[in-house]
Structure formats: structure tokens, C-alpha cells
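*** C-alpha cells ***
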Amino acid sequence: MLEKIAKTLTRRPRLVLAAAAVLLVLCIFGSAATRINYDILTYLPPDLDSSQGEKLLEEPFHMAATTMLIVEDMPPEYTNTLRREIEEVPGVTGAMWLSSTAGIQIPRDFLPEDLADMFFSGDATMMIVQYDAPGASSETMEAISQVRRLCNERCFLAGFSVVIKDTKDLVDQELPLYVALAVVLSLAVMSAAMESWLLPAAFLLSIGMAILYNFGTNIFLGEISYITKAIAAVLQLGVTMDYSIFLYHRYEEERHNFEDSRDAMAAAIQAAFTSLFSSSLTTVAGFLALCFMRLLLGRDIGIVMAKGVVLGVATVVLVLPAILLVMDGPIRRHTHRVFMPDLSGVNRFVIRHSKAFLAIFLIAFIPAVYGQSHAGIYYKLDESLPQDMPSIVATNKLREEFGMASSHFVVMEDGLPRYRMTEMLEKMEAVEGVEAVIAYDKLAPTGLPEFFLPRDLLEICKRDGMQLVMINSAYETASDAAGAQVEQLNAILKSYDPNGKMTGEAVLTKDLIDTTDVDFQVTSYISIAAIFLIIAITFRSLSVPVLLVAAIELAICVNQAVPYFDGTVVPFVAPTVIGCVQLGATVDYAILMTTRFREELQKGADRQEAVLTAANAAGSSIITSALVLFCSTLGVGLISKIEIISSICVMLARGSLISAVCILFLLPALLAVFEPVINRTSLHWRTPKASAPQTQIQIQKENTI
């Protein structure tokens, strides 16, 4: 079956390219129609109280998408006019300020103290703007843009939805730069490592098509996260380039055995398919391990990237042969000298001192594991964004001028007796760090006529048999103090209403911290177990997967320990993603060298000679693959202003080099020292393989003789 497909593909390369182009057009439309989610907190498990509370804020309260507009040093008439203009914006359900019902002529002293403190702070006043659609929806994003156009330079719009809006704009602005820089740097590396100037262009054309196929098929997922969108293209480029190089090298070998280049390519497809499939399994396993995160962001990244690897292999097998055949003449005409270092001397040194390098390998684990376990991690999402971003500036003003470092929301049934409700609110107010508690029973105390209160505010507090309580906190989101405060408030709530839900950015972030702490361990264990099993089956060995996984795990530990030793703090999602991706993407380097080592042993070479030959043969491919992954991700890491994206890409770039160093300098020593153990714990480790069948040209030569 594979032979028939290979011959069909190679006989009509231009037809194959035409069909690929048609699919490409469809995928471009699919990519454009795929929704991008810019709100990481929506990826929390849906069974959490905070997630369920967030849904209740959307319906019936329409409070999930709420922004705070700060107006500084402007007369009340301006703010009142602005409020009316904002209420006319499509997608805005209400703009609540003092004038909403009571009128701007009501003296501040006549208002309840909590209400006055909520709307005024010195020369600044605050307006609450509500939106009809969820906070990360395109409708809300457009409404926020229109609200901003109505404001002058003394107005500052804050809120999580505004942060999402600014994040979206920044990602859309930077994404073309990510791809362009990855392509340019990868092209430079491949041009130096390959003998033809046009060969890297052929590879990039094939991978570019695979990337568009991947993005186009995301439409079947409904939506993807902005983090996935930002890193998927460069990551797919980095981890699938190996497959193109492998197929081309096999094609070059087969050209010596066939007169017709099409027959050589068909043979190369058949010979390379099994190796490509088995090699991609480890990478796919690494990405799929992310799907076991309770934080659904892992599933988002994992599915998209695993699909990207599968489509990358499919494109290499089905489309790249046609590209290479069509460009075969120009590729061979434009050649140059390959610029690759000769590592034979280094390899001989490593093998002669294999026991010393084994000691280095074991000792290196101590600082690496210590640094990894003590590296700083932060969870506050706005810390990963540029601090001059308008939404971050406004958020800082909200914190400084109105004491709203964070806000919690309590959603509960409107059936609690008033005296019990008052008692609960008093206990909540007494919790350390609580600045204010806003609720119906606080705003409408006994004896105060309701006409003194803005009607919009009262409608916010009670709707459809539900009651909403807003709690302003002096503690910043993701801080230990905020986490402890949330626990105390939630305990008070549950003692009065076991079905009550507490939510808000700080509450969601606390759940994010609790969730990802477990996720890191789970995904690491699953990725290690899956890749261990794949390697064990591939080599039919119990000891080989131990050595190979240990070598890459050392590289991962060193990579994740770097932030500890250089004093930096990384966003929470980076270590979890790196732990799976670096293992899956770079363990291929170890598999490549070990496979060649086994082949040399089966040819009768002794272990010292076999290790040296394997290290010399694999060195060029490992360096090229590592540099492509390094270059495709480094550029994004350096230019991205969003630290979540920047940290993931910098760690991937650094990890590719660390993995390459571990494989080039430590794995040969491990193989040389432990080869006797490998032989005893592996099936047919040194058993010579049967002779390969004669090729077309070999048969012709024998007949001629």
C-alpha cells in the first residue's frame, strides 16, 4: 500500500502541489474563522466554585464583563455627559455613576459612606461600565474600543476585560514578527548547515504549508488560546524540521541506487516512513501529556501541537517529495560548502574519559534539581504584560486611588434573612485586608429612602432571585495574603449559604495556583512514562529508555534551574509546558545517536568504536536540529512584550541547546559505560540484521558483469 502511494505521489508532483494548494486555501479560511480566547482564567476546570460563580456573573447579573472608568480632575458635567454617551455604545448594558438615578446635584454627604467611597477618591471619580457579552468576546472588545474613543486623556479604563483587549491588540501586532523572525533565523542556520542555498527554502515551504494546515483545522476545535496561537507556528517549525531533513538525506542515499529520481524518491518515502512515524511518536506523546492538565490551557496547547506534528509528518511524506522533485534542478545548481564544526576530536576525548563524564552527569543533577525546585514562579497575569500598557496603568490607578487592589464577588440566593445577611457582611468586613463590602443590605440600611440610591446599583445587587456581594480587597491578586483572605471569606460564606459561590480575578487566580501545582507533577510523570514506553518498545530494552530519559531530564532540570541561579521569576505556565515539550521534542537527539550506536554494534564494531562512529555521524544532525529549534523560538522570546509567551520561547530555545550539549557530550559516555548492561537487558541488541535486498542499480551492475 505504501509503495503504491509513494509511486503515485512521485509520478505526478505538480498535481500533488496543486491539490496541496487547494487544501491550503481552505485552511486559510478555516484559520481566519477560528476564535482566539485571550482569557486564561476561562481554562480553569468548570467544576470549581469560582468557574461556576463566573457564569452566574454573566447571567443573570451581566457582571463578568465589567470595567471601571476613572475620570481625573474633570467637572461632574463632563462625567455625566460621558456616562450618557457610553450607554449608547453597542454592547454596553449600563454605565453606573452618581448621576444614574440620584443626580449630580445630590451632595456627597447625603450618600452612604460606602457608596461615596466607591465613587469618589480625591479629585478622581469612578464609573462602572457593564457589557452585554462575556468579557473575552469580540463584541465586548469592540465595545471597549468605542468607549475608549469617547474618553479624553484624563480617563483611564481598568478591568480584566480591558487587559484582555490590550493583550489581544499586542499579540495581533507582534505575531507577524514572530513568524518572520523565526523564518529568517531558521533559514540562516539551515543555509549554513546544508549544501544548497535553495534546499532550506524548500523545507520552509513544506513546513509553512503544514503550519497553515494545522491552523486551518483548528476550526474544528472551535477556539484556541492566544498563547497557543502565538507559539504554535514557531514551535511546529522547530520540532518538525527534523523530518524534512531526514527524508532528504534518505533521498540522497537512494539516488545512488536508481537512475530515475522519481524512483529514488519513492524508495526514500517507503524507507523513511517508519522512522518518521516512530520519531514523531515521542514528540506527540510530549504534547499529549499536556492534555492531562486540569487547567484546560494544557489541553488546548497539547491538542493543537500534537495535531501539528502529525500534519507535519503527513506533509513531509505527501507534499515535500513533490516540492523536492520540482525544485531538484535548481537545488543542485546552487550549492556551497557546508559550515559545520568537526566534533570527532571532542568525541574521542569524551569516550576516552567516559567515566569522568559519567561522574559529571551524576553530580550535575544535584544543583539542577535544587535550582529547579526553588525557581521562582508568579501567577499574577498582569505582571506578564508591559507595565506601560493602558489597561495596566489604569489598574494601578484603581489600586492606588480607590484601594481596589483586587475585587471579589459573592453570588448567593436571595433568601437569607436580613439579620443573618447583615451578620455575614459584618464578619466579611472584619477579615483583614477587606477595604469595603458592597451589598444591598449595606447600601439600603433601615430608615434610608431608596430614592437616595442609584437604581442601577440596586439592580446590580439583586436579580432573578439571586444576590450579589462585591468585596474590595487591599491585597493584590496572586499574593499569599490574598489567598488566605479568599479562604477566610469563603469559609464565612459557606457557613451562611453552602451553595454560595465566590469568584473574581483573585479567587480564580488562587484556584489557578492550586490547579497548576498539581498539573506540573502530573504532566511530568505522564510524559516521562509515555516516552519511556515508546523508547522501550522501539529498542526492545529496559535500560535504554532509562539512560535516554535521564539524559534529557538532566537537560530539563538544568533549563528550569537557570531562573533560580540568575534571579529571575517566570510565569506559572512556562515550567509545565517546558517539562513536556522539551522532553518530547529533544529526546529524538538521543534516539538518533543510540540507533546508530546499535547499528554499529550489529555490524561487529566494539563498543568504543561504535560510540565514536555514532557520535560523529549523529553530531551534524543534532546540531542542525537543535539550532533550528533554538532560532525559531529565540526571536520570539527576545521581541515579545508578553512575558508568558517570551518565557516559554526563551526556555524552549535554551532547552534545545542544553539538550544538544547533554546528548553530544554526556550520552556517548553513558552508552560506553553501560553498554554491557544494555546488552543484558535488551532483546537482540548485538544481533546482526539480515542483509538488505539489492537495489535496482546493483542488480543492473551484476547483470552487466
In short: Residues 505-539 form the longest helix (35 residues). Residues 13 and 326 are 7 Å apart (CA to CA).
